[in-house]
Write a structure and sequence with these properties.
mainly alpha
Length: 78
C-alpha cells in the first residue's frame, strides 16, 4: 500500500507539477509572463460577468423576470 501512495506522490511531483515549476522559474525573470494565465482567467470571468449582466437587463426590459415572492416553487411551500 505504501508503494501505491508513493507512486501517486511521484506522479504529482515529477509530472503534474512541471508546469507550475516552470511558472515559478519564470517568475524570477518576468512577473507579468508568470501571471499571464491568471490575467487570462480574470479576463474570461469579466467577459462572462458582462454577458450575464446583459442577459439580466434583457429579461428585465422585456418584463420576463418573475419578481413576486413565489417565483420559486420551494418558497411557496409551507
Amino acid at each position: 500500500m505504501k508503494d501505491f501512495f508513493e507512486g501517486i506522490a511521484s506522479l504529482f511531483e515529477d509530472v503534474l507539477f512541471l508546469p507550475l515549476d516552470a511558472l515559478r522559474e519564470l517568475q524570477e525573470s518576468s512577473w507579468t509572463a508568470a501571471n499571464a494565465l491568471n490575467w487570462l482567467f480574470m479576463l474570461i470571468a469579466f467577459v462572462a460577468f458582462l454577458y450575464w449582466m446583459k442577459q439580466l437587463k434583457t429579461y428585465s426590459n422585456n418584463n420576463e423576470e418573475r419578481t413576486d415572492v413565489k417565483a420559486h416553487s420551494y418558497l411557496g411551500k409551507q
